[in-house]
Write a structure and sequence with these properties.
34% of the residues lie in helices and 21% in strands. It is of the alpha/beta class and 304 residues long. The strands form two sheets. Strands 1, 4, 5, 6, 7, 8, 9, 10, 11 and 12 form a ten-stranded mixed β-sheet that branches. It has a two-stranded antiparallel sheet with strand order 2-3.
Length: 304
């Protein structure tokens, strides 16, 4: 864990020097002239899907609830030993709901289909430890970042030395549609925070996608995969002493780059502004700091 915290602190300094790396919100509402007789119809391209001419916040406020798309993994959204739905993102979202006077509904989604779920209006936002990427900045309205993250390798503890010496020919898994998969496959370009290119490092492995980060770690536990490439936030939240994965180890010796967690909304949605205003208030009153401490995320928290 100390290596991870050192990585975050060092990489955060590097990140502050970058331009256009996802630190700024991609928010903003595109107003439409509803009285114009010649108004063009909305684009059918799902990646360019825009909100209706009416305010999304007005619709949600009237309805009284907001639906969040997520997957289950600690410490963001998960069920504890008492079968209570908890987590940093879970409780932060619920606190936002209290600020806005609405209820929060959580829906488990297939992460690889998150953009489809969002643009089909099955969910109102994606709030589940989602990393900011150049593509997501183009296709969604993103909140300000709130947590730092990196990619970690999870493996059996008694094989760590062997695996770190050479991953050639091994079976590696990551969540389908995740940043880990994008890094491994090279669809997410390396930036100046990267010391080891994941695409080059894993060039000679057998890659198998998993439905979620939790399942990717389960594959390693079951022996059907040698390595899981997952968010370090998830890895340290799920693996270690007094967990179901005490025989696994998290390795962050390779710096595959720094990421930032954000909340994703439909492109142009005014909902981002309302949610972000509430989060700012929760930063100011100490709620965010309390949740970060509760879930051992203080050193990953991005200050405001």
């Amino acid at each position: 864990m100390k290596k991870f915290l050192t990585l975050l602190l060092c990489a955060a300094m590097c990140l502050s020097l970058l331009a256009g790396c996802g630190s700024s919100s991609d928010s903003g509402t595109e107003s439409a002239d509803t009285e114009s007789a010649g108004a063009e119809s909305a684009s059918e391209d799902s990646t360019e899907a825009a909100v209706d001419t009416d305010s999304e916040w007005a619709e949600i406020s009237e309805k009284g609830s907001m639906t969040i798309g997520m997957t289950l993994f600690a410490p963001m959204n998960y069920y504890n030993d008492d079968n209570e739905f908890v987590g940093f993102d879970t409780e932060l979202a619920q606190a936002v709901g209290e600020k806005l006077g609405i209820t929060i509904d959580f829906v488990e989604i297939n992460w690889d289909s998150k953009e489809i779920e969002l643009n089909s209006k099955n969910i109102d936002c994606i709030w589940n430890g989602m990393c900011s990427t150049a593509e997501r900045q183009e296709t969604m309205t993103l909140s300000e970042p709130y947590l730092y993250n990196s990619q970690a390798m999870v493996m059996m503890a008694d094989r760590e030395e062997e695996i770190m010496a050479d991953v050639s020919g091994l079976t590696v898994t990551a969540e389908q549609g995740s940043t880990g998969e994008g890094k491994l496959q090279g669809t997410i370009e390396d930036d100046e925070t990267v010391e080891v290119s994941a695409a080059e490092y894993f060039a000679d492995v057998n890659y198998v996608a998993s439905d979620s980060m939790a399942k990717a770690i389960m594959e390693v536990k079951a022996g059907t995969a040698d390595v899981a490439l997952v968010d370090s936030v998830a890895a340290f939240g799920m693996v270690g002493p007094d967990t179901d994965y005490a025989d696994l180890v998290v390795n962050v010796d390779n710096n595959f780059g720094l990421q930032e967690y954000v909340i994703g909304f439909r492109k142009g949605s005014d909902l981002e502004e309302k949610v972000s205003e509430a989060i700012d208030e929760l930063y100011a009153d100490g709620t965010v700091d309390e949740l970060a401490e509760k879930y051992n995320l203080t050193d990953a928290l991005i200050a405001r």
